[in-house]
Amino acid sequence: MTRDELANASDLLESAAETTSGDAADRLTEIASQIERLATADRGPDHGRLARWQNALGEVKADVDEATGETIEEALDAIVAYRSTVDGV
């Protein structure tokens, strides 16, 4: 099963990583990879993992240019959309 919102977020973050460099690019690539793995795993991420991604992406967004920040914001929107479907908190 593919979780479309997470797959979309991963793609957006890979795209954002290509438009920046250094630590920001590395962090975006790592988070995109984590999201991609869980987009097709038997179980998706829980609220805690989603919150950690959201916090990390907020930190990265503060360190990149406006265009890259907008792409990160789109990915965050996709994560929030997925998170609204997760049971729990």
Automatic annotation (TrEMBL):
Family annotation (PROSITE patterns): PTERIN_BINDING
Note the superkingdom of the native organism: Archaea
Q: Where is this region: Disordered?
A: 1-25
GO terms of biological process kind: pteridine-containing compound metabolic process
The UniProt record lists the Pterin-binding domain at: 1-89
- Can you name this protein? Pterin-binding domain-containing protein
Upper lineage: Archaea, Methanobacteriati, Methanobacteriota, Stenosarchaea group, Halobacteria
